[in-house]
Amino acid sequence: MVHQSAITGVKSSALYGVRIVLAVSGSIAAIETPKLARELMRHGAEVVVVMSESAQGIISPEALECIVGKRVITSLTGLCEHIEYCGEWKGRWDLLLICPATANTISKIANGIDDTPVTTFASTALGSRMPLVIAPAMHESMINNPFVQRNIERLKKAGVAFIEPSLEEGKAKLRWREVVAFILKEFSKEGGIKSEKG
Predict the structure, then answer these.
(1) Residue in 6, 40, 4 with CA at minimum distance from that of residue 181
(2) Neighbouring C-alpha atoms within 13 Å toward the C-beta of 103
(3) I need a labelling partner for 107 at 20 to 30 A (CA). Which of 7, 120, 165, 180 fits?
(4) Mean pLDDT, consecutive 10-residue segments, the chain of 198 residues?
(5) Is the backbone of residue 192 left (phi > 0), alpha (psi -120 to 50) or beta?
(6) What is the pTM of this model?
(7) What is the CATH number of the domain that holds 95?
(8) CA dihedral 185, 98, 58, 75 (to 10 degrees)
């Protein structure tokens, strides 16, 4: 296993000290998450991964564990991982990034449903006013569903940042490099971590 310290910060130290929870839901775009995690780490970020059961059917937790050098959270235990990483306390992490986010995951979060590890992390982050960024990926007809659009707007009004997908070939495609660029712009040490934690 290549430990994350072997690749952290090899491109820049812009995200040094920034701790990112990468939450992966069950879109086929989950296959892009190893590249995303590694690129964030190359800019100095520390990354931990949480996955829904559906996501685990697309990419193995072991693949992401190899990239980030940490156990991937695939279920919640008595250790209360959602509180440890996203709860309202000074030791919590800096950002919850849900990438990719399915229509199902977005709609559950917007309606306060937390029945997967990913949605429970999101519910906790919203309740503790932790920065939350969502990158949708799904078929274009799904993102155009008026109820999904309504849920996206509800989350935006609640302060959740969305990274818009690329609409092409009938799909709302994840642009993982745009995700990295957004994180670098909004959370780099030069720009300051936009967190409300106390």
Answers:
(1) 40
(2) 16
(3) 180
(4) 62 93 97 96 96 97 94 95 94 97 98 96 97 97 97 97 93 95 89 44
(5) left
(6) 0.91
(7) 3.40.50.1950
(8) 130
